[in-house]
Design brief:
The structure holds 2 protein chains of 2 kinds. Chain A is mostly beta strands. Helix content of chain A is 4%, strand content 32%. In chain A, the strands form 2 sheets. In chain A, strands 2, 3, 4, 5, 7, 8, 9 and 10 form an 8-stranded antiparallel sheet that branches. A two-stranded antiparallel sheet of chain A has the order 1-6. In chain A, strand 8 and strand 9 form a beta hairpin. Chain A is globular. In chain A, 38% of the residues are buried. Chain B is an alpha+beta fold. Chain B has 2 helices and 3 strands; from the N terminus they run E-E-E-H-H. A 3-stranded antiparallel sheet of chain B has the order 1-2-3, with no helix packed on it. Chains A and B meet through strand 4, strand 5, helix 1, strand 7 and strand 8 of A and helix 1 and helix 2 of B.
């Protein structure tokens, strides 16, 4: 999978939700995650009541490897497909500040990991990844939240066709 | 809807711990300062709605596993060997 890197080409430096006053301009949050239970104290946007989830590595039925994970809600029949930002080949950074670290019971950005929600659609070229609303997770505290990064695209195509 | 007139520097208090202050007015643009507890999400309305809708589009129920299997199969075919076009 090769994906282009032009999402930040023209957007300005729009402030970013609650976390506009980022102490650190942006962190990679690039840790590998294990399967585990997660708690989202304020839910995921649009699903405020769904707070308990289980993160699972997605394994294709043929037993091969994939870059995907699933986030299964334990409170209702709900689940999300997720992907690591690095699987898209993007230098994807999210703003981190003290409030966010606090909310996730973390002391530094290195403890955190970011995952992106994939919107599956019928045609593969229509499948997109949400770079505007990443999930930020602290595996040590099992806490997560959905961050809003206004200047990133909401629907970034999963596949940017190229040879390979 | 409750409608109030405020001047720059004046505020509106929502509940016990949310204060919205008019910082400045410039033509048709109003700058607001918002003080709210950390657990209260403050977002531009259009951004909130867009992300909520995208989350809802991405959220699947019991179909998820099958849909992912399908998508993944197609992805691998699509990115592996070239299939015409």
């Amino acid at each position: 999978m090769m994906l282009s890197n032009d999402y930040d080409k023209e957007r300005g430096k729009a402030p970013v939700s609650n976390y506009a006053h980022a102490v650190v301009p942006g962190a990679l949050l690039d840790r590998h995650l294990e399967e585990q239970r997660l708690f989202f104290p304020v839910g995921i946007l649009g699903f405020p009541e769904s707070r308990r989830y289980r993160l699972e590595i997605y394994r294709p039925e043929d037993g091969s490897e994939s870059p995907f994970l699933t986030l299964k809600c334990l409170d209702q029949d709900l689940s999300f497909a997720l992907i690591y930002p690095r699987s898209l080949g993007l230098d994807y950074r999210v703003p981190v500040n003290d409030e966010m670290l606090d909310a996730l019971s973390a002391t530094s950005a290195e403890q955190l990991s970011a995952l992106l929600i994939v919107t599956l659609r019928e045609r593969i070229e229509d499948i997109t990844v949400n770079l505007q609303g990443p999930l930020v997770i602290n595996p040590a505290s099992s806490l997560g939240l959905q961050l809003v990064v206004e200047h990133c695209p909401l629907r970034y195509p999963l596949i940017q066709r190229s040879a390979e | 809807m409750l409608i109030l007139s405020r001047r720059p520097g004046e505020s509106v208090t929502l509940g016990d711990d949310i204060v919205v202050t008019v910082v400045s007015v410039n033509g048709n643009q109003v700058r607001l300062g918002i003080n709210a507890p950390r657990e209260v999400r403050v977002l531009r309305d259009e951004i909130y709605k867009a992300i909520r809708e995208e989350n809802q589009a991405a959220a699947k129920a019991h179909e998820q596993k099958r849909e992912m299997d399908d998508a993944f199969k197609r992805l691998r075919q699509g990115t592996g060997e070239s299939t015409g076009e």
